[in-house]
Specification:
Pfam families: Acetyltransf_1 (PF00583)
Strand content: 25-35%
Protein name: Putative N-alpha-acetyltransferase 50
Largest sheet: 7 strands, mixed
Organism: Helianthus annuus
Keywords: Acyltransferase, Transferase
CATH architecture: 3-Layer(aba) Sandwich
InterPro entries: Acyl_CoA_acyltransferase (IPR016181), GNAT_dom (IPR000182), N-term/lysine_N-AcTrnsfr (IPR051556)
Number of strands: 7
Structural class: alpha+beta
Distance between the termini: 52 Å
CATH topology: Aminopeptidase
């Protein structure tokens, strides 16, 4: 454990040459195996998908998909966000999420959302700290894990400007 030392955390975009690191992280972090479409979407999101390095060791990632809504607006879907257990609590997940929030704001993207299993209180509380709110419950979203229900957790970035 690191004590009273500045933590050196850097982020790097996911590309073909380091995609295997994302695959390895996912195999350790998540109870499901992701298909080729997941990785194609992650690569297509460019700077929205990042690997996190702690002292040059790949310890976390955020993988996003950019989606076009019916009105033509773009929104960000966070497919996965995870940090290896020994490196949790060091601000790495915060840095990854803040990156996506800041980039969304810069690119005038007004909505970020994700699915969270209904019993994952740690994740729900984590996202709430960043202004995300539960906007929907989907029954039987997950097939092979219990409980099968999820929340849709959403952050709206650009609020309409009020008339003065």
């Amino acid at each position: 454990m690191v004590t009273n030392r500045a933590v050196s955390v850097s982020l790097d975009s996911v590309r073909d040459k380091n995609l295997m690191q994302l695959k390895k992280l996912n195999s350790v972090l998540f109870p499901v195996r992701y298909n080729d479409k997941y990785y194609a979407d992650a690569l297509a999101s460019h700077h929205f998908t990042k690997l996190a390095y702690y002292s040059d060791i790949c310890v976390g990632s955020i993988a996003c998909r950019l989606e076009k809504k019916e009105d033509g607006a773009i929104r960000v879907y966070i497919m996965t966000l995870g940090v290896l257990a020994p490196y949790r609590g060091l601000g790495i997940g915060t840095k990854l999420l803040n990156h996506v929030i800041d980039l969304s704001s810069k690119e005038n993207i007004g909505e970020i959302y994700l699915h969270v299993q209904t019993n994952n209180e740690d994740a729900i509380n984590f996202y709430k700290k960043f202004g995300f709110e539960i906007t929907e419950t989907i029954k039987n979203y997950y097939v092979r894990i219990t409980p099968p229900d999820c929340y849709v957790v959403t952050k709206y970035i650009r609020q309409p400007q009020s008339e003065k």
